[in-house]
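Here is this case:
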Amino acid sequence: MKFTKRAIFPGSFDNLHSGHIDIIKRASKLFDVLYVVVSVNADKKYCSTLLERFKKVKANVDKLRLKNVKVICNDGLTVDVAKKFHCKYIVRSIRSIDDCDYELDIANTNRHLNPAIETIIFVASKQYKNISSSKLKKIKYQLKKKLHKNLGAVHSINNKRK
């Protein structure tokens, strides 16, 4: 059996954004197989279901036409999906120093659970360092709120004309 370098890139991807796409493209150059793992994080509230997120991520990754990248779902432990797909590497990313403690904690936990796992941390490209799914959710929420307020005002004006 030929040795293949396999990695997983796990995340909730609740708003897949250009920073994620950049990491997928860069990581795909280092590994023979890269699994983008749409996962569940019990600490997060999601805008869409796991299946909806999977479908969005798959559609966007398919557009990249990277033959060595596959999209899968996971609702369990990251190290378990890594083992299932014979991956020795977990791809993570940091945008700034603020992300370091969190990512180091995750990497050490994963290594504790499976000492054969190595975490490879990518530094976000400069143009994407300020993008996060959380920020995008907040912006989306504010835009919806503003839209509803404006639609309410339009409705009110139309009712006054009658």
User: Anything to note?
Assistant: Helices lie at 18-28, 50-64, 78-84, 97-113, 133-161. The beta strands are 6-11, 33-39, 69-74, 89-94, 118-123. The chain has a mean pLDDT of 85.
